[in-house]
Amino acid sequence: MTQTIFEKIISRDIPAHIIYEDDLCIAFLDISPTAKGHTLVVPKQVYINIFDIDNGTFMHITSITKQLCEHICQRLSATGAHIVHNAGTSAEQVVPHFHMHIVPRYDDDEIKFWPSQKQQHDLVALAEVLRRT
Ligand code: AMP
């Protein structure tokens, strides 16, 4: 089966700017950063996205993401951050290997990250459909 670009980074077949590694995951700088310090946290085992990753690995990844987010923001004097996971092509996932984005934010960085265009929905009906009992 064809390897993902992230598997090649994990196996050191292609270079990356790795900032953290343990038995289950690796973190490296995004090659095309949205902001200074943009980092990807990636499990070593291949899962496509949140719809197929197991809970244990997901919890480890989220724990490491939190620790690295705090570390990156402190080291780079970032004042905020986005934690993003794109799941599926409709959500603009490009690399089919689970990853969390850590995107540090800085005062006055003028990045527009969140869509300003809002939708209107029947929230009462929607909550009825979605409520878990
Ligand atoms: P996504 O759209 O959520 O699948 O994001 C994939 C991310 O992987 C993008 O932000 C890319 O810039 C990043 N990326 C792709 N190839 C590499 C690479 N060789 N090293 C580091 N980051 C990469």
Structural write-up:
- With 133 residues, the protein is of the alpha+beta class.
- The chain is built from three helices and five strands.
- The longest helix has 22 residues, at 55-76.
- The chain is globular and about 50 Å long.
- The termini are far apart.
- Residues 5, 16, 28, 30-32, 40, 86, 92-95 line the site of adenosine monophosphate.
Short synopsis of the structure:
This protein is an alpha+beta fold and 133 residues long. The chain has helices at residues 5-10, 55-76, 123-130, and strands spanning 18-21, 25-29, 39-43, 80-84, 100-105. A hairpin with a 3-residue loop joins strand 1 (18-21) and strand 2 (25-29).
What are its keywords?
133 residues, alpha+beta, binds adenosine monophosphate
Main sheet overview = 5 strands, antiparallel
Number of E-state strands: 5
How many individual helices? 3
- The largest sheet has its strands arranged as 1-2-3-5-4
How far apart are the first and last residues' alpha carbons, in Å? 41 Å
- Give the class from helix and strand content and strand pairing: alpha+beta
Oligomerization state? single chain
Q: So what's the overall shape?
A: globular
Q: How are helices and strands ordered from N to C? A: HEEEHEEH
What is the topology?
Elements: H1 5-10, E1 18-21, E2 25-29, E3 39-43, H2 55-76, E4 80-84, E5 100-105, H3 123-130
Antiparallel strand pairs: 1-2, 2-3, 3-5, 4-5
The chain binds adenosine monophosphate (AMP).
